[in-house]
């Protein structure tokens, strides 16, 4: 699932994630089937499903032949991490904030 959220230290439109792609493929395929069953326009979901389930496109975007595995990619660094921050008031939950350890 979304076990690697937040996905990148520097989120951008230049990152791709195998697990997110799989969830979107499943979702669009399911929505296309539901739309067909209830007599609605399934075309947008069908087009998205066909794109996301295209094995050649998946291989082109995610296959790492050196490691022999499908991989995410994006702008990642080990110089940024999430740290738990105490809430400003005692009755509020704590939260996480990005912390840059070196620039």
Structural features, described:
The chain is an alpha+beta fold and 103 residues long. Helices cover 37% and strands 16% of the residues. The chain has three helices and four strands; from the N terminus they run H-H-H-E-E-E-E. Strands 1-2 form a two-stranded antiparallel sheet. A two-stranded antiparallel sheet has the order 3-4. Helix 1 packs antiparallel against helix 2. The protein is flat. The model has no long low-confidence stretch (mean pLDDT 82).
In short:
By secondary structure, the chain is an alpha+beta fold.
End-to-end Cα distance, whole Å, is: 31 Å
Percent of residues in helices comes to 25-40%
Order of adjacent strands in the largest pleated sheet: 1-2
Structure class:
alpha+beta
Rg: 19 Å
Question: How large is the share of residues in beta strands?
Answer: 15-25%
Calculate the mean pLDDT score and round it: 82
Number of helical regions: 3
Based on CA inertia axes, which overall geometry fits? flat
Please mark out the parts with pLDDT under 50 across 5 or more consecutive residues, or reply none.
none
Write the layout of secondary structure elements.
Layout: H1 18-37, H2 43-52, H3 55-62, E1 63-64, E2 69-70, E3 80-85, E4 95-100
Antiparallel strand pairs: 1-2, 3-4
Helix pairs in contact: 1-2
